[in-house]
Amino acid sequence: MKVTIFLLVLLFTMVCQANSERFIVKSKIIDENPTVQVSLPDTYSHSDSYQYPLLLVLDGSTQFSHIAASTQFLSTYAIIPEMIVVSVSTQKRMTYFTPTAHEKFVGRSGKADLFKGYLQKELIPYISNKYRVAPYYAVTGHSLGGLFTSNLVLDNNSKFGLHISISPSLWWEKSILVNNYKALSDNHLSSPKRWFLSIASESGEMFESYTAMINALNEQPLSKLHWFSEHFPEETHDSTPLIGNARALKKIFNNWNAVPEIDVMPLHKLHDFYLKKIPEYGYHFTLSAHQYNVYGLKAVYEGKHQWGIEILEQGVKEFGKSEILWDSLATAYKLNKQLVKALHASNTALKLAKTSNSIYLSDIISQNEHLNTVSNF
């Protein structure tokens, strides 16, 4: 019975629907004008005010598509927050991703601070002015990009609160970041940071430096640093970003989902749950459209009709243009035998779905026709 109920929840939950754009954001800090790609959550048009955390993807020309897809999919089921995914590419990775100048790469390394300046002073303000971005920033990088994100973890002046380092090049300059970490005091970080590190089948200095960092993290923990690690021995250096980023998002948000299984909550407890997350994440996550939908329907299908209705009613107040939330509210009313309210909610969902040419139009029509039929008896 529980499995059937959960499958029904999945049936009525939104699926991924990417909305991406590509453009150039010019720079006065670095000597490039990087190409930027943006993937908006599929609920972006459901509200005029809701703000979304930002996930910044390095090496966007190769990494953007799969990370944007993973983010859309996982957030659909409230496993992670809905986020605006932004990617940026540079043709001078060694120059801008490395924290120090290396004697073997004189003149083309050691300008990570400049690239951080571009991200924090030019790119993020530009994106925030163009889209509804919340003041919570995440960043992911692979290889040298992973070295860059690792360096941001240790930088108390970085604006990023969440970091993903896939097979990071921690061997750089005799594992300088490992040594830098060992020199930090426990109160080095003024706000919470979360960090995921992984390694694939790499050997030699890549594996040795990664192991040294893990050992340092275990031996000398920082009170405001929450870190997670994973080993993917069946993946190569080139293949690991695909599984690594999806795993990172799940692991770094491992305790973020208020209702991961079937232990449902009323609305006030959901709000309390995320208030209690502020000290851990350094940010107050407010409920998104997907969360209202998932948590509301789970409550309804677990027999807590009033809880589910309250959650979904609040959802349509905050995301009034969401055809799927109105349709889910119609479902909740129907299961609670409130057919007049169910038909009204369904009619609203149908109007919105037709206006937006929603991919859910046929499903919404089907429920609307059924409600019209039963309401006439």
Q: What would you say the CATH architecture of the largest domain is?
A: 3-Layer(aba) Sandwich
Low-pLDDT parts are 1-17
* Overall strand count: 8
Order of helices and strands: HEEEHEHHEHEHEHEHHHHHHHH
Rg on CA atoms, Å: 23 Å
User: Any idea of the CATH class of the largest domain?
Assistant: Alpha Beta
Organism: Pseudoalteromonas holothuriae
Protein name: Alpha/beta hydrolase
Keywords: Hydrolase, Signal
GO molecular function: hydrolase activity, acting on ester bonds
Write a structural description.
The structure is a single chain. This protein is of the alpha/beta class and 377 residues long. The protein folds into two domains: 15-252, Rossmann fold, CATH 3.40.50; 277-375, Tetratricopeptide repeat domain (Serine Threonine Protein Phosphatase 5, Tetratricopeptide repeat), CATH 1.25.40.10. It has 15 helices and eight strands. Strands 1-2-4-3-5-6-7-8 form an eight-stranded mixed beta sheet, with helices on both faces. The model is unreliable at 1-17 (pLDDT under 50). This is Alpha/beta hydrolase. Keywords: Hydrolase, Signal. It comes from Pseudoalteromonas holothuriae. InterPro entries: AB_hydrolase_fold, Esterase-like, Siderophore_Hydrolase_D.
